[in-house]
Design a protein that fits this description.
Chain lengths: ~300, ~260
Amino acid sequence: MPQASPRGGDAIDRRNLDWYIDKGVQVLVFIGGVSGILFVISIFVFITKEGLGFLTEQFSIGEFFGSPRWAPTSSHNPTYGALALIAGTASVTGLAMVIAVPFSLGAAIFIGEFATGKPREYLKVLVELLAAIPSVVWGFIGLSIMNPLIIKLFNVPVGLNVLNSGFILGLMAAPIMTTIAEDALKAVPDTYREAAEALGATRWQVILRVVIPAAKPGLLAAVLLGVGRGFGETMAVLMASGHSINLPTSVFDSVRALTATIAAELGETAVGSDHYRALFTLGIFLFVVTFVINLTADLVVRGIRRK
Amino acid sequence: MVAAEPQARPLLEVRDLAIRYGDTLALSGVTLEVQKHEIFGIIGPAGSGKTSFLRTLNRMDQFTPSMSVDGEIRFNGRDIRRWRNVYSLRRKIGVVFPLPVGLPLSVYDNVALSPRLGGIKKKADLDVIVERCLRRAALWDEVKDRLDSLGSLLSGGQQQRLTIARALSQGPELLLLDEFSIAVDPVTTMRIEDVLKELRQEITIVLVTNLVQQARRLADRTAFFLTGECVEIAETERMFTREVQDERTRDYVEGRFG
Ligand SMILES: Nc1ncnc2c1ncn2[C@@H]1O[C@H](COP(=O)(O)OP(=O)(O)OP(=O)(O)O)[C@@H](O)[C@H]1O
Ligand SMILES: [Mg+2]
């Protein structure tokens, strides 16, 4: 005869400590998840609130995206053309990806598919160490090593330019991209490799025909993460790019990046001024671009999965 | 079932084979020959070394660093360990694993992979090979309308037949099957067995099986492995008619084994 307890259960069906712990953890995790979403939304609301006034009042889409003249501090005729800044960020990120994608995918394939035993472990640690170098240190390398090197090698007047910052940014992005790409390769079951090798495929054929196609979503995620990293990186680009407003026509032109502009100028503007709000508009633009990159990554990955 | 006619030269000659994982002996003292167009069965309880044996035949032991092989294996008279291009050896030997491995490619590409690796590029040629192999594996009717969908999305039994089609696509002289029916329903198993009987006209098959009756249905001769030892090799029928040389074989065949 089951005993009725005050809580309404009986000897067999009773809510014990485990049950309450489980419920408690569920609530905690839920709060964690929801607050993450809330943070993102409130950041977006904050940026939009600060920048929106500018967008709706003074902002002309034609000028913002079409004019390369960013002269918000000009006393008689302040202009807010972000084209040069966008081109700066895009050129630096583009060059960085040209360097980082082959480097990181190559490194990931070597670590994941060819290296074994000790060397493999050392390499992985090394890559993780590289990922841990702070961006200001990278900027320092750009300023003090790359700068004179570029001047000497290519015989150009300034070494702080697209080449310098793109190279630095590529080196910065490569380790994390390598790690993610290698995880993606490792996630491909060994049975695939064995099955393909049993068919007489060489190691390289196995990698090219089976492993890489199977790891494609992860590899793509690695690349897009690198692109996002490039767009968002501030300090190293600020230090290595020359920080001068230019529509670059060669890799030896100095440029100014969106992020570096915000970082360098925001502290010196009066809260609520046009300049202040224009910087927030840049912020909105960065946010949207990063969001679109991540969304594309997500959709592409999902698309591949579904197929 | 008739024993294969003895040929001038066996397709496979194994002499004094010993397989170790690290220092642990997994199989030793195996000496046997497999004739052309023979179905050679291998039976034995779990852990007796059947899979290890099969893996050494096309040098898949390379995948396991701790695995070492002693003794001699000759394929078509050539020592396989002296084969200079291991990939060309593997192309002559098809393998079917216990659990089907549908590669994450379309059904078509799964079967076309090996011919493509072999240098066949023309779509028309590939089409012919793909259809022929899928038909021979008794899978064509089920997948002919979904050749473009992922091979790994087929059912387990379909994937196993896809694996067989893939193994055939490389035009092997020798087909190694490792407990192919472990994830396949009885009806499909019987269909695959019919396919194997037909294939016997063209190729040689080494069939590892945990179903004693399957060996009886298919194999001309059968070897009985027990804890790393090749206890007996005999014409399969003899094993079931108590004409065995070793008590342990009879015990196993009759299911009186611990
Ligand atoms: N990768 C490995 N590392 C170490 N030992 C192994 C490895 N693979 C197999 N062995 C050992 O070798 C012996 C033979 O294994 P094997 O897989 O060849 O047996 P099997 O006859 O195929 O068994 P089953 O019928 O269960 O498939 C076993 O004792 C097993 O533990
Ligand atoms: Mg086995």
